[in-house]
Amino acid sequence: MGIEELVRENVKILAPYSSARDEFWGMDYVLLDANENPYDTDINRYPDPYQRLLKTKVAKIKGVRSDQIFIGNGSDEIIDLLFRVFCEPYKDTCYALSPSYGMYKVSASINAVDIHYSSLRDDFSIDVTDLLSNVKSSDKLLFLCSPNNPTGNIFSLSDLNEICYSFKGIVIIDEAYIDFSDHSSMISRLDRFDNLVVLQTMSKAWGAAGLRVGLGFMNKEIVHFLNKIKPPYNVNQLSQNRALKLLEDVESHESIVNKIISQRKWLESELKHCKSVIKVHNSEANYILVQFQHPKEIYELLKSEGIIVRDRTAAPLCSGCLRLTIGKSDENIRMLNLIKSFSK
Q: Cystine design at 312: which of 112, 140, 197, 318 (Cβ 3.0–4.6 Å)?
């Protein structure tokens, strides 16, 4: 099945909004077409609606073509746009794993699309047979978060390949935390699977959560349809400029990522010796999922001392678990000492 066959009929025939900067961008024109303020403030002009400079830089770093990239106002915007392109409200459905990132369910609900789940195994791996046997004919989107949030593990390449090959809709692999993993990105499979969308972000490893710059990698046909329905200027000029500046310093980026990974490994080792800890789950992200004997009490103790972690005790397969984000060395030491001090 081709990509266009999966697209909603109204999106296929949609005439997209033509913005003032679709045709005239990046050259020395006298711009009197968009009712902009002519006096230079660095931001008096509308931004490039297709983020061309940013895409060129990202393409070079990631080893893809610029026409395989869609940049969104955070990855959450890309998730929402995928629903709008492929899912007919009250008719089509989507599929995800459990536990996983909660925004898939929220976006599905906003777009009036039912979502159903395949549970991870107890070791948080994918039961591919169960997943594929429960696919519905109405499933247009399948969401896989790898490394998975909140569990921290990455899914095997062979499992992801089999799912991409077998699922007849769009497979979205959310790699928000891939920079903290030793495993390779599924970006390398873009030319193999037309139905593959890989999401990454500048929020985590690049330290730019405040910019809201989400990176989507996919075949150019999907990019075309996302461009048809996105807001004209979905990524503002300040975010584009700052992102470009960050991407110029790959060395600093890698240094910080390595520090976080080193701190994660240290904290994993130390937590295993804490009497209040039942299990430290292996992580390939910038957080650790930890099962405690008294998770609520540990959570309240940390909070009382000004340390905020994430309570995941209500999530499937995460009974008794708190998610601990890796901070700076002194922050991690402070948190660890409080956990060691807990007694009940």
A: 318
